[in-house]
């Protein structure tokens, strides 16, 4: 799953309060739910840093999570 509408009262899922976008790295590990840097109309964003030195003080290549960041409106 890459994108999903969530929230609201529409049971079909055609509309929602926000669209949730999932981003994965080359290994198939979840790296982002929405985007912390460009929130836009989203109500929530979450980022997981495994081996990205910009987000983690120590790059971890074994699957361990090096850092997380989130943003909630």
Order of strands across the main sheet: 1-2-3-4-5
Beta-strand residue percentage:
35-45%
Order of helices and strands: EEEEE
Report the principal-axis shape. Answer: elongated
Over all CA atoms, what is the radius of gyration? 14 Å
Q: What would the average pLDDT be, to the nearest integer?
A: 78
Straight-line N-to-C gap: 24 Å
Coarse structural class: mainly beta
Count of DSSP-assigned helices: 0
Can you count the beta strands?
5
Largest sheet: 5 strands, antiparallel
The share of residues in helices is: under 10%
Architecture overview:
The protein is an all-beta fold. The protein has one domain. Helix content is 0%, strand content 37%. The protein has strands at residues 3-6, 18-24, 30-33, 44-49, 67-72. It has a five-stranded antiparallel beta sheet, with no helix packed on it. A hairpin with a 5-residue loop joins strand 2 (18-24) and strand 3 (30-33). It is elongated. It starts with a strand and ends with a strand. 7% of the residues are buried. The mean pLDDT is 78.
List keywords for this structure.
5 strands; elongated; 73 residues; mainly beta
List the helices and strands and how they pair.
Layout: E1 3-6, E2 18-24, E3 30-33, E4 44-49, E5 67-72
Antiparallel strand pairs: 1-2, 2-3, 3-4, 4-5
Condensed summary:
The model has no long low-confidence stretch (mean pLDDT 78). The protein has 73 residues and is mostly beta strands. The chain has a 5-stranded antiparallel beta sheet with strand order 1-2-3-4-5, with no helix packed on it.
């Amino acid at each position: 799953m890459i994108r999903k509408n969530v929230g609201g009262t529409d049971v079909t899922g055609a509309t929602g309060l926000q669209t949730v976008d999932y981003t994965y790295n080359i290994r198939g590990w979840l790296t982002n739910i929405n985007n912390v840097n460009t929130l836009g109309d989203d109500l929530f964003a979450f980022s997981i840093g495994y081996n990205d030195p910009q987000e983690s003080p120590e790059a971890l290549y074994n699957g361990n999570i090096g850092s997380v960041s989130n943003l909630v409106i």
